[in-house]
Amino acid sequence: MATPSDRSPLRRRSLFKVAGLGAAGAAGLPLIAACGDIESGGGTSQATDGFDFLPTYKEWPLPVEPDLVGEPPNHPSGFTTYPDPVPAIEAVPSNSGTFEITVPMWGEAPSSDDPYFAAIAEASGGTTVNLRQADGNTFAETSVQWLNANEFGDGIMLFSWMLFAHPNFQETVVNSFYDLTDIVKGDISERWPLLAGLPTASWGQSVWSKDPADPETARVFGIPGSFSGGPGNAMFARTDLLEAAGQAMPTTVEELLDVARAVSDDANGRWAFGGTDYLTPQWFGLAGGDGWAYIDGKLVHNCERPEYTEWLEFRRTIWDEKLVHPDLPSGTLDGQALHKAGTIVFQLDGISWWQGFIDQTTAEGTGGTIAPLGALSAKGREPLVHVNTGVDSWTFLNKDLSKEQVEEFLDFANFCSAPYGTTEYELINYGIEGTHFTYGADGTPVFNELGTSVVQAPVNHKTMSGHVQQFLTGTPEMVQARFEYNASVKDFAEVNIFEGMRVEGPADFKSAGQVLIDQQNDIAFGRADLSAIPEMVETWKANGGETGREHYTAAYDKLHG
Amino acid sequence: MTATDIRLKPRRKNARPVWDEEPSWLGKAVKALFLICYAAAIVLPIWAVVATSFASEEALTRAGGNLLLIPTDLSFQAYQEIFDGGALTKSLLLTLGLTAGGTALSMILTIGAAYGLSRPGSLLHRPLLMLVLFTFLFAPGLYPSFLVVQKLGLFDSYLSLVLPMALNAFNLIVLRSFFMNSVPIELLDAARMDGAGEFRTLFKIVLPMSKAILAVIALFYAVGYWNIYFSAVLYIPGLDTQPIQVVLQRMLMSTQGLPGAAADVSQYQTQAPDSALKMAVVVCTIVPIVIMYPFIQKHFTKAVITGAIKG
Amino acid sequence: MAALQTSAPPAPSGGRERVRIRNKRTVAQRLRHDWPLLLLTLPALAQLAVFFYWPSAWNIIAFMDYSPHRPFWENPFVGFAWFERLFANPYFLPALLNTLKYAFANLLFLFPLSIVLALVMHSVISTKVRSLFQSVVYLPYFFSWVLVVTVFVQVLGSDGLVSNWLLGFGGDRMTFTSDPDSFLFLAWLQWAWKDAGWGMIIFLAALASINPSLYEAAAVDGASRWRRMWHITLPGIRPVIVLLLILHIGGILNVGFEQYQLQRNAVGFQTTEVLDTFVYYRSVIGTDGPSFGTAAGLFKGVIGLILVLVANNVAHRLGEQGIYQKS
Q: For A219-251, b where at least 16 C-beta lie within 10 A, e where not — what string?
C-alpha cells in the first residue's frame, strides 16, 4: 500500500528509525524519572458526623402534621389527606441569576419552554435553573467524564448510588466542587430557614475531606437531598394474575418458587420473573451496601458466605426451569412494559413502581393490580430487608462559581426544600393548577397529560435539595398501603455496620466486584456452573477482595473502636 | 462494467476460450449450488427485513414471529412513525448531516494532502510522508484518544464524531498513488508552461481526471460516517439525539418497544408493531447505501482495477 | 484496493521522471516554489497531529499515577507499575487470548472462503451472472455491525425466524445467538456474511491481472484445469495473499470493538472480552482509572507494531515484496 514507486521514502530502515524513536521516547522517559508506587484509587473512609462546621439545626415547624405517624426514617410518616397549602417562605428573595445544572433523566426530557419552569423561576425569587438532562441509564459512568473535563455546567446532581461508578470520588469532589463550608457554617436560619431545618445527618453526609488521611481537612461540598429510609426496592407481584391462577401471595422463598412454577408457561410466553439480581440477596440473608457483614469478629463478604451459593442456586433454578424471561440476559428487557402486559408476573423494581403501575395502567386502561412481596426468607431463617437510610442525592456546585452565585443558588435550594403542605411544594411537585394538575374529588392533586410528562419527571427541581422531612404522599389508598408495608418490614431492616461513616472502597475492590457481578450473571443464565463459585471467590479475593477487606476492616475498627 | 470485464475483453462475451475444456455437469451443478446458496444466505435475510418492515400487526401475529418471508398485506405505518418528526426522524437527520458534513471535510483533507504529497522532492516531502505512513504501524490506543477528545472539550459534542476520524491515511495514500501514477506528467508540465499554479492545476486538470477514484473514496468515508456507532457510545453518551446505529442498537436489544432501557420507552412509544418498526429502521439504514451503490460500483471496480493493474 | 498497488509491477516511466533535483536550491527558494503543496497538506497534518500524535504522546500516562485533577507534571512516574498490575489482572490474559483467538480464526477461515469464492466466480463465464452475483455478495461489507447483529438475532435468535419455524414443528427455540460455546462459529458466520464478498472482490481483481496467455500456454501443454489452478492461478495471486496476510497480522489485535460489545450481554463477557472492550469496560466507564486503560492500550499498540515489522521481515525472506521495500 505504501510504496507507489521504488523511490518512496518508506524503506525499512527509515521506518525502523521512526518506530524506534517513538518506542525509545515512550520507554525512556519513565526510566529516567524516579519510579514510585501507585497511590491513586486506594479507597477512603470519611466520617459523616461530629463536625463543628455544619449549619446549626433549627427546627422548621411543619404547617400540617402527618395523619399517619411512623418511625422515620425507615418507617416514614404519611399523609392520607391533602392539606390546604400555605407559603413556606415569607421573604421571597429578589434574584436574577441563571444556572445550568446537569441532572439524570429517564424517559423523554420535557421542553424547557414549559410554563412550569417559568413559574418556578418566578416563585423562587427570579432564579432560573435550567436542567441539562442526560440519559439516566448511563449517567453514573458518563458523569465521571464530565467531572474530569469540568463540563457539567454550574452544578450536577448525583444520586448516592452513582458514586460507586467513580474511580476516586473523594478526589473528584474536592477538586471539582465548590466548598460550601464558609457559607453554610453556623446559624443560617435567617436567610435559609429550610436548609437549617434539614437534619444534621444530611449535612454530615455532605462532607468530604480534602486530604482523606487528615480529618481536619473535612469540608461541606454538596447540598444534600432528602434524608430517607425504608426499603427502596421491592419484588412486585401481579396480584390479579396470581388470583386468576389460584395462587396466594408467597411468604417464603420456597412458596415463591412453587407459585412461579405454577404461573410460568414458556411456550405461551409467560414467565414468573424478569430481573432478579439486586433485591434477591436479602431473601438469603446477604448484606446490602458493599456486601460486608460482621460475623464472628471479622468482616465477611457476601460471596464468602454459604448463603451466596444458595442465592445463586435459586437464580439458576428459575433460569433452568424457564421461569425467567428468556431475553433477560440481553440486559435491556423492558420489565415494566412486560409487567403491565402480564408477560412477567413478578417485577423487581424501585418502590415507586407501585404508584407508577397504577398511574400507567389507569392512563392506558389496561388494568391489573400489584403488591410488593413482604419480607421473604429461605429455610425458615429470620428475614432481612435492605434499607436505604441516608441522603438520596446531592447537588454539587461548580468550583468556578462566585460566592454570590452560590448564595443565590442556596436561596433556590431553600425554596426547593419546602415540605408537603406548602405552596412551594405544590408548585414544584404538581405544577400549576389547571395547566398541569387539577384537584381530584378527595382534594388530592391529579396530573393531567402535560403534568405527567413535564412535572412528573423523575428528576427536576424537586430533587435539587432535600425536604426538612420526607413523607409518604400520593393517593390515600397508596399512602395507607405503603405505610402498612413499611410497618410490616421495618423490624427486619438491616443494620448499617458503617453508620456514621462513608466508606469508598479501593479501585481494585470495586473492579473485582464488577467482575463478580459478571460472573454471577454467567451462572444465573446457565453460561457457567455453580461449581465455578469457589474459584470465582478465590479470584475475587486475590484481585481486590482482600484489599477491600483490609480497607473496610480499618474503617470498621475506627468506628467501633 | 465489472471487475473482470477487462479480462474478458480480448475474447468474445460469454464464450469459453478454445483451449479451455468443458467442465463436467457435476462440477457445474456443485458450482451453481454453491453460488445460489451463498447468494440466498445474503439476500433472504435482507428480504425478510424489508418484508417485515411493511407488515401489519395482524400479519405478524398470524405469522407468529418477528420476521416474515412473505408479506401478506402492505402497511406503511412503521415508516410513518419513523418520519413523524420524533426521535427517530431527528436521529436520521443527524446521521445524514454527519455523513454529508464529515464526508466533505474528509475529502478536503484527503485531496489536499494527497496532492500536496504527490511530488517527491518537494520541500519536506519525505518527513511529512513519514508522518502519514507511521499511522499504519501504531495505534495510539483507546483511552488516550478519548482523553484528547475530552481535553479539547469535544466530549458530548457532535464534532467528536467527525474530527477524530476525518482523515484516513489509507485513502490518502491510495489517492496520492493515483495522482502520481495515473495523471500524465505531460499534462502537468503543459499546465505549468501555461503558467497555471498548483491550485489551478489541481482543480482544472487533476481532479477532473480522478472522478472515479474520488467517488470511491467518498463512498468509503460516507459509509464510515453513516455507520458511526462506537464513537457515539464513547464520545457522546450524554446527548439526546444519537446516530441511527445507536438508536437501532437500543431498539434491537429490547424485546418490547423501543430503546432498551426500561424508562426510555415513552420517548419512542409506538403504534406500529415493534418488529415492523425495528425492521423499518434497519431498512432506513440500508437504503442510502443501496441507493449509492450502483453509481459508485461503476467507478468502484474501475478504481480497483486501476489500482491493481497500473499499481 | 491500495494494497494491490504494491504487488503490481512498478509504475511505468511516468513516476520516475517526475522526481526532479531540487536539492541544490535554498530552502527559501524551495519554500517559494512549494508553498501551495505545503498549504494543501497542512489541514491533514493538523488532523493527524491532534488526533494521532497528540494521543500517542498521551500514552506517557501509562507510566504515571495519573489523575485528571492534578497539573500534568505533578503526576508521579511509577515506572511499569501499571503494566505489572495489568498482567496481574485475571481478566487481561483471557482478553488477550480471546483477541488472538478471534484474529486467527478470522484469518484461517475467512481467507480461504474469500479465495474459494473468487476462484469459483472467476470460472463463471456468463458476465450477467457474475455482475449480479458480485453486486449481491459484497453489499453487506458496507453494513454496520449493529445492522449485521440485528439481522442475525432476528433470523437466528431465540425469538427469530428459524426459532419460530422450529417451534412450529414442535421443536425447541434456538439458543445459538446467546450460547457462549458456539460464539466462535457465530462470529465466523457473521464475518462470512459481512466480509467474505469483499475479500472475493480483491482476489478477483488480482486474478484478473493474471495474463490469460499463461493459461493458454499451459492448456496447450496439456495441463489440466486443477494443475493450471495450482501452477498459474495461485502463484499469480500469492503476492496479494501475502500482502493481505501481513496487513491482517499487523492489525491482528484490532479485532474490532463493535461486534463484541454488541453481543456482550447476550453471550456473556467471558467470551466476548477482547482488548478493546477490556479497556472500555475497565477504564473508560469502569473504575480502574485512566493509567490502567492506557497501559492496556499501549501494550496492544506495541505488540501490533512488533507483529507488523516481524511479518514484513518474514515476507521479505520468502521473497515477497511486503508492504514496504528493503532499502
A: bbbbbbbbbbbbbbbbbbbbbebbeeeebeebe
CB contact under 8 A, C130 and B132: no
Residue A523 backbone phi and psi in degrees, to 5: -70, -45
C-alpha cell at A325: 424471561
- pLDDT digits 0-9 by tens, B29-84: 888 898 899 899 999 999 988 888 888 777 776 665 567 777 777 888 888 888 88
Residue range A533-540: mean pLDDT, rounded: 94
Residue C240 and residue C206 in contact, taking contact as beta carbons nearer than 8 Å: yes
Which position has the higher pLDDT, A48 or A410?
A410
Domain A233-386+496-560 has CATH 3.40.190.10: yes
Cβ-Cβ contacts under 8 Å for C133 (sequence gap 6 or more): B35, B39, C121, C124
Residue C324 placed within a domain = no
Q: How many domains does chain B divide into?
A: 2
**Which chains neighbour C (Cβ–Cβ under 8 Å, 3 or more pairs)?**
A, B
Q: Do the Cβ atoms of C52 and B135 come within 8 Å?
A: yes
Cα distances (Å, whole numbers) of residue A529 to A525, A532, B115: 10, 6, 60
Per domain, the residue ranges of chain A are 58-229+389-485, 233-386+496-560
For the whole prediction, is pTM greater than 0.80? Answer: yes
Shared-domain flag, residues B142 and B111: yes
Q: Decide if A146 and B156 are in contact by the 8 Å CB cutoff.
A: yes
Cβ(A356)–Cβ(A336) below 8 Å = yes
Band the pLDDT of A5: cuts 50, 70, 90.
very low
How many residue pairs bridge chain B and chain C with CB atoms within 8 Å of each other? 352
- Which residues does C193 contact at the CB level (< 8 Å), separation at least 6? B41, B42, C140, C148, C152
ipTM of the complex: 0.84
Chain A residue with Cα closest to B267: A108
Does residue A401 surpass a pLDDT of 90? Answer: yes
Provide the residue range defining the domain that includes B53. Answer: 23-78
In the predicted structure, residue B307 carries a pLDDT above the cut 70: no
A192 pLDDT more than 90: yes
Nearest CA in chain C to B237: C285
The residue of chain B with its CA nearest to that of C2 is: B174
Q: Quick check: is C190 in a domain? A: yes
Contact B229 C6 (CB under 8 A): no
